[in-house]
Specification:
The chain is of the alpha/beta class and 353 residues long. The protein is built from eleven helices and 17 strands. It binds NADP nicotinamide-adenine-dinucleotide phosphate (NAP) and zinc ion.
């Protein structure tokens, strides 16, 4: 018999969240059962459940920033034991044998990686995410959370952390790099900390200077408002890399003008609509416009260890299960500094729909 656990779900894009019981499969031999302690709210959850990226499969539980404790393991599990501190990010399955999976890039699985929620799993079921009391996951998609990181500050690392760490590592950001982090939200605030820990000089580009002191506290050397007169002209050709975390439409060409020759814009923000680009913006100066999607499992573990070593965690607002609708509004309004994280112990007393 599959177990039932409490979860937050929505029955449609406009319905409020409700607490309901959902089923988790019986653990297979290579599965671990995780007692979830904290679940981060990523803007991707919001895009998904509001149908901004296409029709989601309702009723749906989202959440792919999951931290908790191993509660049970299948007979063939080799890497984890009951009591281990673990995390799960955006992936719960992949083919495991294509060249991308074999190279540790399960995020690029040539046969289709399975997302943690709203994806069709190999058994035909639709995956249900981490706003929940427990999850059952194949051990290949589980990472170890170092003791130095509390569950609630670690949870957001499983998506926002790896999504910013991976392009910064891929493009060799380090001592002397001039990095601009575009957008200071959940992803951006981790990007600032990671780039600074790698030795880069970090400038935050935000819609206003409202969060200036917070940006400095995260390790930035400067914050600029993209809305101020002369911003694009005054900052032309300054940066080696722009980490673009914006969740909405942006004037891509203008931002490319901020790069040095051969500079890189790594796009991780995924606004619902297509963005326009003039090729002249990358041809001039031989610039690179590239994207990045989360990261593979080995790099996710590397990122967690890096964050623990450098004292990096998410700055969070802890919320209860009945505050998630409100948190979504505040994330979209840019009022959460910087990640809302659901305290899953509040499921216990939550009334069911
Ligand atoms: P978030 O916390 O809401 O942060 C997004 C930031 O974008 C905001 O803090 C804001 O920065 C800026 N922004 C929002 N609306 C804007 C507007 N209308 N104009 C200009 N700037 C605006 O979101 P997040 O969780 O960091 O996610 C950011 C994006 O990355 C989302 O689209 C998400 O789906 C995507 N994502 C992608 C991956 C991947 O693998 N590539 C992984 C996770 C998330 P300021 O307030 O500083 O201006
Ligand atoms: Zn995410």
């Amino acid at each position: 018999m599959p177990m039932t656990v409490k979860a937050l779900r929505k029955t449609g894009p406009d319905a409020p969240f409700e607490v309901a019981e959902i089923e988790r499969r019986d653990p297979r031999p290579t599965d671990v059962v995780i007692d979830i302690k904290a679940a981060g709210i990523c803007h991707s959850d919001i895009h998904t459940i509001r149908n901004e990226w296409g029709e989601a499969h309702f009723p749906l539980t989202v959440g792919h920033e999951i931290a908790g404790v191993v509660e049970a393991v299948g007979d063939e599990v080799t890497h984890y034991a009951v009591g281990d501190r673990v995390g799960v990010g955006c992936l719960v399955n992949s083919c495991g044998h294509c060249e991308e999976c074999e190279a540790g890039f399960e995020n690029n699985c040539l046969n289709g990686a399975v997302g943690t929620y709203d994806a069709e799993d190999v058994d035909g079921t639709i995956t249900q995410g981490g706003y929940s009391q427990k999850i059952v996951v194949d051990e290949r998609f589980v990472c170890r959370i170092p003791d130095a990181l509390d569950f609630d500050v670690a949870a957001p690392l499983l998506c926002a952390g790896i999504t910013t760490y991976s392009p910064l590592a891929t493009w060799g950001v380090g001592e002397g790099s001039k990095v601009a982090v575009l957008g200071l939200g959940g992803l951006g605030h981790l990007g600032v900390q990671i780039a600074a820990a790698k030795g880069a000089e970090v400038t935050v580009l935000s819609r206003s200077r409202k969060k200036e002191q917070l940006a400095m506290d995260l390790g930035a050397t400067e914050m600029l408002s993209t809305e101020e007169d002369g911003f694009f002209a005054d900052n032309r050709g300054r940066f080696d890399l722009i980490l673009n975390t914006i969740s909405a439409d942006i004037p891509v060409d203008k931002y490319l003008g901020l790069l040095k020759p051969r500079g890189v814009m790594a796009v991780v923000g995924l606004p619902p609509d297509a963005q326009s680009l003039r090729f002249g913006s990358i041809i001039g100066g031989r610039k690179v416009l590239t994207g990045s999607n989360i990261g593979g499992l080995p790099e996710t573990q590397e990122m967690l260890d890096f964050c623990a070593e450098h004292g990096i965690g998410a700055q969070i607002e802890k919320i209860s299960v009945d505050e998630v609708d409100d948190a979504y509004e505040r994330v979209v309004a840019g009022e959460v500094y910087f990640r809302a994280v659901i305290d899953t112990s509040t499921f216990e007393d939550a009334a069911m729909a």
